[in-house]
Design brief:
The complex is a heterodimer of chains A (479) and B (249). By secondary structure, chain A is an alpha/beta fold. In chain A, strands 5, 6, 8, 10, 11, 13, 15, 16, 18, 20 and 22 form an 11-stranded mixed sheet that branches. Chain A has a 10-stranded mixed sheet with strand order 4-3-7-9-12-14-17-19-21-23. Chain B is an alpha/beta fold and 249 residues long. Helix content of chain B is 39%, strand content 29%. The chains are: A alpha/beta (479), B alpha/beta (249). At the A-B interface, helix 10 and helix 11 of A face helix 2, strand 7, helix 3 and strand 8 of B. Bound molecules: adenosine-5'-diphosphate and magnesium ion (MG). Adenosine-5'-diphosphate binds next to strand 2 and helix 1 of chain B.
Amino acid sequence: MSQEVIDERIGKEYAAGFVTDIESDTLPPGLDEDVIRFISAKKGEPEWLLEWRLEAYRGWLEMATPEWAHVHYPPIDYNAISYYSSPKSFEDKPKSLDEVDPELLEVYEKLGIPLHEQEMLAGVAVDAVFDSVSVATTFRSKLAEAGVIFCSISEAVHEYPELVKKYLGSVVPRRDNFYAALNSAVFTDGSFVYIPKGVRCPMELSTYFRINEANTGQFERTLIVADEGSHVSYLEGCTAPMRDENQLHAAVVELVALDDAEIKYSTVQNWYPGDTEGRGGIYNFVTKRGVAHTNAKISWTQVETGSAVTWKYPSCVLRGDNSVGEFYSVALTNNLQQADTGTKMIHLGRNTRSTIISKGISAGRSSNAYRGLVRMSPRAEGARNYTQCDSLLIGDACAAHTFPYIESRNPSAVVEHEATTSKVSDDQLYLCQQRGLDAEKAVSMIVNGFCKEVFRELPMEFAVEAGKLLEVSLEGSVG
Amino acid sequence: MLTIDNLHARVEGKDILKGLSLSVAAGEVHAIMGPNGSGKSTLGHILAGRPGYEVTAGSVTFAGEDLLAMDTEERARAGVFLAFQYPVEIPGVSNMEFLKASVDAVREHRGEEPLDAVTFMKKAREACKVASLDQAFLKRGVNEGFSGGEKKRNELLQMLLLEPRLGILDETDSGLDIDALQVVAEGVNSLRGADRSFILVTHYQRLLNYIQPDKVHVLAGGRIVRSGDASLALHLEDKGYAWLEDEVA
Ligand SMILES: Nc1ncnc2c1ncn2[C@@H]1O[C@H](COP(=O)(O)OP(=O)(O)O)[C@@H](O)[C@H]1O
Ligand SMILES: [Mg+2]
């Protein structure tokens, strides 16, 4: 494919790029302690949480933006962002779906998650976060029977304060990094999950995030605690309307897998990536981390196709002996998107094992970097890691980078690393076309094939969606 | 079916075909032989519409239409099939998925519904038998880790399922043992019919023991320099191409 042809054909449409006209209650831009007090008061938070936020804020003021990632963007003016936006009709939070603003429900329908339908179809419980406020959590009652708690984090603060107090910030400390500190100061909503001892969560849990308002940031906070011997699979999906300005998304996700527990966390991230010239799009600066105790397992699967800039390293701290960490990732960049993503596997316990499968796809003029750290602590006797890191290039104008860091301080630990870089070759495209397929179908098929090892880790319905998403995201990437 | 008239073609700035003319009637099988580098594969790629292969003069009519005006995939859908001399691999894309998409693309062009999975699988299994490939190959990535002979039989498998109107086999017999050669021959013979034509590019007369050609041509220096019946192949086997040198020059 010549660059000319690629440029000519670049013209992808962002299907989720509609703006919804809902009256909302938005705080004017700017950040200071009063804003934090406002957010906390708005949510009727206890004093300890306000103090917790303020402490994070004070830490944040002393911190600098991380500069080490392979991404470039103009400095963000944190005082130009509004830190709270709530649809007006949520002043009094709805008690059931019937009370939810029909226009809002329509938004979710456009996104392909009709809540009503989902409630009937059974299978997936959805917590939908619209701008800053959690809209509705479906399947509440069915989950309650199993003793599973699935609600917004604001509700959890009120209803399960001990759990929140115990675990909030236990995995990602308030001053962990610049964006995590910011999130800790201003987080507005997000999901909370608790699976009791020995319970296998009866359905997939799911959250959809959407940024609707202009100039708002989204700072959601997710906390999942799987008590001993429990099991949960959690799905997260994200979209945002098309806007010319960049919007900030700085989330924190904390996972706690106690002894013998298992958490599977899957993400399909389709934030608005900006237009073909790189105008607009989401800055996605996210901290995701899980702690696995003895014999526990944490598995991250992510399909990242959106955002203008992605900075994201879902990580596992393998604290307990025999604990297992997994990271399966597909990151696709097109046009002028930039992604710096990967994982950290911190092996603390004995016989801990981790697997990293990363598939990076670069098209257009985009840049795609894998950054991974595998650390074997002195105590990690017999620990093992396997890393496979593959890059696929489409066209001649994109870039792929791999930054694998290995720190092994235990001689019995084994770290294996494999990396490949390949191109969607003209010969492959020609073969497909000679068999009657058009170039776009051919590329999406080749890319899907490339991602197979990751897609098979996704829950069935998500795998289908992910495949389609890749196809849409690649539109216009070939001539 | 196919009429090539005074075709001139260029690859990477180099003139390869220099006035090639050839007519293949419906139902006929033509063999093309000739020295290495004479332009046999180039001819196949020009007919298939390989990007970067440039026609500088001449015309090609296929089933009454201007073949050169059609895109690569349109030609395939219209029934032009090229069995590649060097099949490429597509890792992770299963043969089955690839074939289903191809067959459906061709069917869609003909205004037919996509095949349902069960019918497709039945056809695919039958084709595997004819191509003497274990069904396990349907699940493997396209040509991924296949041996040379398996890749060639996989080309045959694809042709059997796509049922083209014009099958061009570019040295599909090269590197095959005698059993595999017979498999390929039987595959082609099973497809032969009044409305289907073949161009067999080969170096070996022995293939023509199993597939009776209607005509044999010698391609040298970018042109057809000699045409005849099956006996021409025997003669070439005996004498090589040297005796044709005058024509080549
Ligand atoms: N992609 C290419 N770039 C440059 N030269 C090529 C290319 N493909 C083929 N050729 C040249 O064209 C001539 C004919 O090649 P080919 O058609 O493959 O011959 P044959 O199949 O008869 O052996 C050879 O000299 C070959 O080197
Ligand atoms: Mg050749």
